[in-house]
# Entry
Amino acid sequence: MSTNPAFEMRNISKRFPGVLANDNVSFAAAKGEIHALLGENGAGKSTLMSVLCGLYRPDGGELLIDGAPVDFRSPRDAIRAGVGMVYQHFMLAPSQTVTENVMLGLRDTPFVLNTPQLAAEVEKIGAQFHLPVDPHAMIWQLSVGEQQRVEIIKMLYRGANILILDEPTAVLTPPEIEGFFRTLREMAAAGKTIVFISHKLDEVLSIADRITILRGGKWVDTVANANLTKATLASMMVGREVLFRLDKTPHQPGAAQLALSQVQALDDKRLPALRKLSLTVHAGEIVGVAGVAGNGQRELAEVIAGIRPVTGGAIAVTGQDVTHAPPLARIQAGVAYVPEDRSATGSAPDLSVAENLALRAFRKAPLAGRFVLKRQLMQQQAQKLIAQFGIATPSPQTPSRKLSGGNLQKLILAREISSQPQVLVAAYPTRGLDIGATEYVRKVLLEEREKGVAILLLSEDLEEIFALADRIAVIFEGQIVGDLPANTADLETVGLLMAGEQVEA
Amino acid sequence: MTSQTTRSANPTVSRVRLERRLEQPRWLQIMSPIILLGVALLFGAVLLRMVGANPWAVYSRMAGLAFGDAYGWSDTTLKATPLILAGLGVSLAFRMRLWNIGAEGQLFIGAWFATGVALHLLPETTPQPLMLLVMAVAGFVGGALWGGIPGVLKARLNVNEIITSLMLNYVAIFWNNYFIYGPWSQRGFGLSPQFPRTAWLPRFTDYAEQFPFLRGITAHFGIFLALILAIVLWWVLRQTKWGFEIRVLGDNPQAANYAGINIVRNTVLIMMLSGGLAGLAGMSEVAGVVHRLQERFSPGYGFTAIIVAWLAKLNPLAIVLVSYLFAGLLVGGDAIQPAGIAQMLQGVILFVMVGGEMLLQYRVRFGQV
Ligand SMILES: Nc1ncnc2c1ncn2[C@@H]1O[C@H](COP(=O)(O)OP(=O)(O)O)[C@@H](O)[C@H]1O
Ligand SMILES: [Mg+2]
# Structure
């Protein structure tokens, strides 16, 4: 790592209607450096990097590449100067091959394309930086992780020396993250400058050479990654002390509220996803489901909520059989569900916050009579929940699509919990949330446990499962392959079970 | 705040581009039909100039004919009535993203059912209120059955309702033709015998004895039905539990399913109600205007209703306004000779309004982001 800055941003300001997204921020990185840009959601990370890659023009400040001032008018200008960004949302054409996508948008494409040569080059870049991907595969056939590799290859092919990756790990599974970090190290070793945007402390600590923290659009600090703790980083990021330990009362399970026995179900491709899965959750306990993504977690949550048909076995809630009952019957039996997909399943985007909060309770008193809704009460109820759960919204009338991810998640939690459920299924409740919101959601789950709710927690974050769960159920290929008390389980055993290894209990 | 706008590079306008609006501002949503009408009239004016007419004179004659006096309002109301009823039906289905484009057929079947009641089911001597009530119910049921077919196919077998509802239009029209040329024909002409007077919807002019100023006002009481139903529908969607379910379903079916709302049942129900309202439009036409079943008694109200519902953004109250606007265009069109010009003008106005509605979802941007 040399000390020459590969790029330098000086006193950058960028205003959007109503927000100063970057306020006088200075930021630089050296050749061969992996520099993490850390901050909560809305801190201004994406905006700052969009300025660097030519997507936005700053309202103030200067930009230097290799010591020379530049004025980018478009991402094309930036890529010509060697700056490339991989956005949070990929920009690939799904029905084209990998090679064609790499080619797409190149200015000097010859009229007759030499595709085999290009495919060979794609393969070469892939091999050099540990980015395995089939140059002839269609984009739609690829997993999200593979698509990300295509985006990176695309930038490298265009000669990017400065690579900006916006929350790249958000879409990756833990094993993919390992491989991805290897790629980052190899690119840095080859003299490239990497800017790695994240709000996950562990990742930043394990990969970055230096860390720059943004908060509320302002630069907080730039620190070398040595002798840093999560707690110091977190407090810089949030602006106050953050608790990582959660206080938990001893485990006192009550009656079996949710019982699945030998449940079978198909996935969207009509392949078996749950294979005779059995699981019980008692009142007042949290059962954490640990597993590598795609082992039936989604289907498990959906069969309990009643939105996916069961092809075998039985499901009982508070002793009643609900195996083939429709979603409404599950709701009436006391099942609450915080779905994985907040906007596609969990909310109606054009309806107001108040209406979304009433999505479960609108059928009954006090929110409705026999036929007619009581809008006044709906409004009051919404105001109460907004205050109680700290949902940041301009008003109860605001359409829910205007809420940020964290606030939408609070809305869904507020709705599900205020229905006083017997059973709560929470699928990835803290995914994509910043530290403050994550802390809050976990606190709420523990409060519900205190109240005697039977909670099934699906999470990809083992740390979360260990912190919250009383029992850990490991799911592998649609079966529960291990059911361990959380206080005696160790990470290694759980990891082995997740990988499908046989472990002697 | 220390933003340093002064030091930014001088902004140069590099090019103009269209950008999709994330959000249509509320004023634009409300004003857009009015703005578009203005633009459409401007286009029409150019067209009229080109054929050598004086646009201002033509427009004032059109407006005069459609809205200038009580007779104009009467004629316009006559044409607005079926547009409102069918438009409400279409809007209801569209709200759930069920693309019912079979309103024309549902209208014909509604008219056929009403005719069956008036001519064959009930005796001539039936008291008028009872007669009309049974005709209305029959018209509604007929339309509901016709709309229910694509509904059931969609809900049960996921058959595309656009195709089925469209095809059923032709079936309905042929069905009608068969009866008016066959079993119900009056001496082989394409029309049924006239309804008994008890099967006529009261017209304003029928009350000219007591209120002389109503003489010649041929609009009928179907308009009251249309207005009442518009208000009822607006209220139901806004204030009832079922209306709430429909709005959730229309916004995000997956969320509706998750919230325990029955998609299959509501799909069938909505398609039936949608068809039923179009069926009522048919009943009101045969009972209020032509007083018999005949060929082509609808000049495509069921299709125009689709445009009406769309331009009204599916809002029941706005449907009333837009229906009057379109009815005025139809009535006013008669002012222009030769008739081809009028139709061309109508075409241009329609084109600009529908096309412009899409364009308003974008905005023009200059230079860089
Ligand atoms: N295109 C935009 N228009 C308006 N506001 C924006 C836009 N992009 C970002 N913002 C706002 O700027 C702030 C910083 O956002 P962003 O840079 O995306 O943060 P981060 O990437 O750190 O989560 C937020 O308040 C966000 O709402
Ligand atoms: Mg961001």
